[in-house]
Amino acid sequence: MIREVEETKFVKQFYDLMTEVECGSHFDFSNPRHDEWLRRRISRHYYRGVKFFGYYLEDDKPVGFAGLLAEEKLEGVACFGQMTELLDIGIFPEYRGKGYGKELLKYTENYSREFGAYCMYMATYAKSHETIAFYGSHGFAPVATLPDVHGPGDEGRVYLRKIIRH
Ligand SMILES: CC(C)(COP(=O)(O)OP(=O)(O)OC[C@H]1O[C@@H](n2cnc3c(N)ncnc32)[C@H](O)[C@@H]1OP(=O)(O)O)[C@@H](O)C(=O)NCCC(=O)NCCS
Asked: Closest Cα to atom 26, ligand 1: which residue?
C-alpha cells in the first residue's frame, strides 16, 4: 500500500534510508552536522510542499518512499508550465530488486498525470549509473547535464525527464 507520510513519521521511519538516498555512502552518522543538515533538508522539502509517499506491506512495515514536488502552472503564462519533479526515491536494501521501486515510480508518474503535468523530471548524481539505468528502464531519458555543479573535479548532475501529457 502506498500512502502519503507526514514529516514526523517520515523522519521516524525513513531517516536511515534518506541518508543513503541523499548522501550515498558519504553520510557520517557520528557527525552531528550531517544529522542537522539532513533534518533541515527534509524540513525544507516539506515546507516547499514536497509530498512523500511511503510504500508499506500489509503488516504496515515500511519498504521505501518517494518524494515528489508538484509545481503549479501560473494561469495564462506559457513559461510557467505545470510540472513535477521526483526529488527522492529509495527502497530499503532488503527489499530491492523485487519491483517495489518500480511501483513507487509508477505511482508518482500517475500522480503527475492526474495533476496535469506535461512532464515529470528528476536530477541525479551523474556517477549514479545504476539509478540512471533504473529511471531509463522506465522511459526517463537524460536530457541535460550540469557538469560542474558541485565544483571542479566532481561529477555533476544529470537531468532526466518523461513527457506524460501530449
Ligand atoms: C533505485 C531503487 C529505488 C530501485 O528500486 P528497486 O525496488 O530496487 O527496483 P525494482 O526492483 O523496482 O526494479 C525495477 C526495474 O528497474 C530495473 N533496475 C533496477 N536496478 C537497476 C540497475 N542497477 N540497472 C539496470 N536496471 C535496473 C530492474 O531491472 C527492473 O526492470 P524491469 O521492470 O524491466 O524488470 C533502489 O535500488 C534504491 O533504493 N537505491 C538506493 C537509493 C537510490 O539510489 N535512490 C535514487 C536516488 S534519488
From this structure: 134
